[in-house]
Amino acid sequence: MATRTPGHLTGAPVLTAADVRRDFGAVPVLAGVSLGIAPGEVVALLGGSGSGKSTLLRILAGLDAEATGEIDLRGTAAVVFQEHRLLPWKRVAANVALGLAGPDVAGRVARALAEVGLADRHRAWPAELSGGQAQRVAVARALVREPDVLLLDEPFGALDALTRLRMQGLLRRLRAEHGFAALLVTHDVEEALLLADRLLVLEDGVIAEELPVHLGPTRSPDDPAFGALRRRLLDRLGVPAP
Amino acid sequence: MTRAALVPPAPVTAPATTPGPARRPGRTLAWRRSATPLLLVTGWEAAARFGLLAPEKLPAPSTVLATGWRLARDGTLLTHLLDSLTRAGTGLLIGGGLALLLGALAGLLRVGDDLVDPPVQMARMLPHLGLVPLLIIWVGIGESLKVSLVALGAFFPLYFNTYAGIRDIDERLVEAARTCGLGLAARLRHVVLPGALPALFLGLRLAIGAAWLSLVVGEQVNAQTGIGFLMMEAREFSQTDVVVLGLLVYALLGLLSDVAIRTLERRTLSWRRGLRAT
Lengths: 242, 278
Prior knowledge:
Chain B: Pfam families: BPD_transp_1. Chain B: The chain crosses the membrane at residues 91-111, 191-213, 242-264. The complex is a heterodimer. Chain A is α/β, with parallel strands linked by helices. Chain A has helices at 53-60, 92-96, 105-115, 131-143, 161-178, 189-195, 224-236, and strands spanning 3-6, 15-24, 27-37, 42-46, 68-73, 77-80, 149-153, 181-185, 198-203, 206-212. Residues 3-10 of chain A have low confidence and may be disordered. The model of chain B is unreliable at 1-22 (pLDDT under 50). Chain A binds chain B through residues 61-63, 77-79, 81, 83, 85, 87-91, 98-100, 123-128, 141, 145, and chain B through 172-173, 175-182, 186, 190-191, 194-195, 197, 269, 271-272, 274-275, 277-278.
């Protein structure tokens, strides 16, 4: 089992993983992955399907008891999955408040819901929400915990293209306001370039490439530098140019 | 009986009826659906009145109701009813409690599943009403026999639905609850229990049905009180109206308990009709 040591706040990485290994039967999925995420840094983890991206994120979230390696989390982490995973028998506000302790839970929940633009839906049942709304509640559920690092497992993968664009904008805004670090697992190169400060490419069970993204805070796919970087990544992932 | 326990939960909500013009055909339909039963009862009454039915074979419904009123007024009916209800309640509590305990054990723990489930699966092949001769040898013909039969009848449907309800919970929801920092007890309370509740309600309804059935059989063996005793005694004196009244009481008990559980279910599981609630 990967050991998770809760750390104390220093300037050091908020989340480090060293030599993480995991195999399913005889098939090694992760063959010694090491990475570090600095406080406030957004790192995108790219890779083809079946490359082990989600497996790695589950290990970092402490959901995989059979992985080996060292995980060092300094602070708190929260997870947003590809599906919203809201409890259907709890109203929106109760879902956001799940497991929350401390003073003024109701106020914190209301503020988190307001931040994702769903202040008026706190009494709704999850079944009454659209896919995008439900995913925003899932983001609020993570956000209300004020995590030092947010683990995002293809959080917008199941949404339609327009909703996905809006959610990406929302995440950028929230990140600018709260300054959390994040690990974003995605197969969408454009999404990774829009949101991340650094890209990691997972291939054959190891981090095969690391790439800083120097595009500035107001980045857009129309930027030539953006296009060049995208082309380079697609080549790296084996997608031929049209 | 117990086989039915594995049937997936029936939809709790009737399909949403749209208000307005769509309601009228529904109402007409309700009238049309009650026409045949009303006609049958009227025909039965008429046949009895005109002497087509011998009173000792089948008395008129009005006679049965009059007998019911007479027995209710002198307190006989209430005494026997309370005795029957006590037996059903005690049996249900014992059988249902054991079913919840063992079902949760088998559903939640792998070792519980390995140790508890195989013998229960084997035992459910036995028709529990066929156990009456064996039960008489074991516990005699007194109260314990009636209570044991009810407990046995109630156990299986509730056990299987508890087990299935827990097993059917989406593992991904449990995982999400873990990432929200919920410990084992909190996960049981916020995820497992509400997730299994629809199946528990179905199990409870089937268990109550089985409990009444077991009671009917059990009360025909050497009972000194109870609705079943009332019927057996009336048969000896050819009081057919009391026999029919007993049947009517059993049917009403089944109907009332089912309505009560459904109401409780609708209130507790309001999230399932979330789309209609607002």
